[in-house]
Amino acid sequence: xxFASVSRLLLASAGFLAVVFLASAAAPAQDKKADNTxxxxxxxxxxxxxxxxxxxxxxxxxxxxxxxxxxxxxxQGWEGAGKEAWKRDFEPLKAANFGxxxxxxxxxxxxITEGKELEGINPKVAVxxxxxxxxxxxxxxxxxxxxxxxxxxxxxxxxxMQILLLGIFPRSPEPNGMYRDxxxxxxxxxxxxxxxxxxxxxxxxxxxxxxxxxxSKDIMPDYLHLSPKGYDIWAAAIKGEVEKLAKK
Length: 248
Description:
Elements: H1 2-34, H2 47-62, E1 67-71, H3 73-76, H4 83-89, E2 95-99, H5 105-112, E3 125-129, H6 140-157, E4 162-166, H7 180-190, E5 199-202, H8 228-246
Parallel strand pairs: 1-2, 1-3, 3-4, 4-5
Helix pairs in contact: 4-8, 5-6, 6-7
């Protein structure tokens, strides 16, 4: 009897320890997601960002946008180095450029939720690229979660809109340079968002690279932002797909 009691006590203790172990093992994953800044909508307060955001809200209220470009400074650059390509290839498609330099996934998420940038417009297509500014502060998995959160919100607000999700462009001059592997890892994860119906993933990063995998200043002068030639490459790589999706 005494031996049986001790055995039951030991078994109960082992079961308790197993539960504690499993709970502690699961905690880091939960904490990691809870600490992911990339999925928490965040408003930017600097004057430049506020001014552009307010302009976008005004554009949306007027309506008449068939193609929406959503992103950071690389997207904003359609108004700078890419202005000729934009005028030639996308302006005729009734396109609007909602890119803000410095934006991370959490900022775009805020803009389309609390910032109400989509109210008043019903684009046929959204062209989206975001995440390069998260590279320093977030893991590839966290960045991918941020991109996923934006895609889900776009689908929720505009269920009939086609989404052309672009892989994050390569950066840094050398093939093994900073963030190259992290960008590839992030892109691999977000590529799975492609459902062949409403979300279409496209990685055109290789089109900017030399044969040896390096980046040329001729394409990206600072190894991050595109030159006019770079925007020509971007436009040529997606124009046909944008036009096709707009007809769905």
